[in-house]
Amino acid sequence: MIRHFQASDDRGAMMEALQADGVIVVENAVPQGVLDAMMEDLKADLAAAPIGGGEFFGGAMRRIHGLARRTTTVAEIITAPALTGLADGVLLENCRNYRIQVLGLFQVWQGGRLQPLHRDIGVYEPYILREPGSREILLSWIVAVSDFTAENGATRIVPGSHTWPRERIAREDEIVQAEMPRGSAVVYLGSVLHGAAVNTTDQPRSAIVSGYAVGWLRQEESQLLDCPPEAAARLPLAARQLLGYRAHTPILGWAEQRDPDDLLAEREPDVAAEGYKVQSLQNM
User: Fold this and answer.
1) Of the candidates 42, 130, 136, which has an alpha carbon nearest to the alpha carbon of residue 95?
2) What are the structural domain ranges in the chain?
C-alpha cells in the first residue's frame, strides 16, 4: 500500500511515511491550471514525438525532454512546495543544495510491455553503491498529468525496497500501483524499485517524470544543455537554480567567478568564493 497525503498535510507526517516506506502520494501537489497551460504549450511537440522507446520503456511510450526550454510553466511544477519541501528533508543532510535530475513529459499508450523494475540510483552504479540505511542522493517524483489508474498503466512501485540489498528481487505480491488523481505526485526515494505498467485503455496516460539530485552529483540529463542560458533567463530564480544555474558550495560548479547563487546574474566576481579558492590553495 502507498500512503496518500494532501499537499497541505503536515510535512513531518509525510517525511515519516516517506522514510519508512520509500514512497508516498501527495494529492493536489500541482494546480490543474498549471497542467492545462503546460499541455497547451507542449501540444505541437507532443504530436511530433514518435511512440516507441525501446525495450526499457516498454515500446509504447511517447517522450519529450527539455521541458524547461519549451514551456515556462514547468517552473511552477519543479518549484512546487509540496515537492521541494520533501526534498529539503531527504537531501539537504547530504548536500548544500540540490538540482533537477531529469525532466520529461512521458505518455504511456495502449499496448506495450511492462517496464523493468529499476532504481533511479542505478545510473551511478558501480561508481556509487548506496547501502541500505545510508544517505539518499536522489528523490524522484512523477506528477500525474492525467489520472493514474491500474487500467491505464499507473506506475508500479515496491514500497520498502529502499531497505533491501541490491540483488533482492521483488515478488509480485510486493508490487503496488501508484493510482492517483490528476495533479498528484508519487514521490519516492531514488533507491526504490519502480517501473511503468501496461496501458490497456484507448487513452494515453501522461506524466511529468522528474526528481532532484544532490548538488555535487552529475545530473542524469544535462539541464544546462536542455535549457541553455537564453531559455533559462525567462524562468524565475528558484527554477534556474534547480536546473543547475547555481554553484554547490562557493566554487563547485562556478563559472568565470560568477555569483554562486545565480550563474546568470550580471554581477561582479563573488568575493566570498574567491576567498574560499585562495584558502583552499593555501591548504594544499
Assistant:
1) 136
2) 4-245, 247-284
Radius of gyration of the chain (CA): 19
The larger pLDDT score, comparing residue 159 to residue 276, is at: 159
CB neighbours of residue 73 within 10 Å: 19
Cβ distance 189 to 23 under 8 Å? yes
DSSP state of 256: T
Instruction: End-to-end CA distance of the chain: give it in Å, rounded.
Output: 52
pLDDT digits (tens, 9 = 90+) for 178-214: 999 999 999 999 999 999 999 999 999 999 999 999 9
pTM above 0.85, yes or no: yes
Instruction: Report the C-alpha gap between 279 and 273 in whole angstroms.
Output: 10
Q: How distant is the alpha carbon of residue 32 from its chain centre?
A: 19
Q: What are phi and psi of 195, to 5 degrees?
A: 180, 150
Strand locations in the chain (E): 4-6, 23-27, 51-52, 61-65, 98-100, 104-108, 138-144, 156-157, 176-177, 185-189, 194-195, 205-214
* Model confidence band, residue 276 (pLDDT cutoffs 50, 70, 90): very low
pLDDT cut 90: percent of the chain above it: 80
Q: Which residues contact 56 (CB under 8 A, 6 or more apart)?
A: 115, 116
Cα–Cα dist 94/90, whole Å = 8
Q: Give the closest residue to 68 by CA, choosing from 215, 197, 244, 263.
A: 244
Is 4-245 CATH 1.10.10.10?
no
Which amino acid appears at position 204 of this protein? P
Instruction: Quote the DSSP letter at residue 40.
Output: H
The answer to whether 27 touches 6, Cβ cutoff 8 Å, is: yes
Q: How far apart are alpha carbons 99 and 58 in whole angstroms?
A: 28
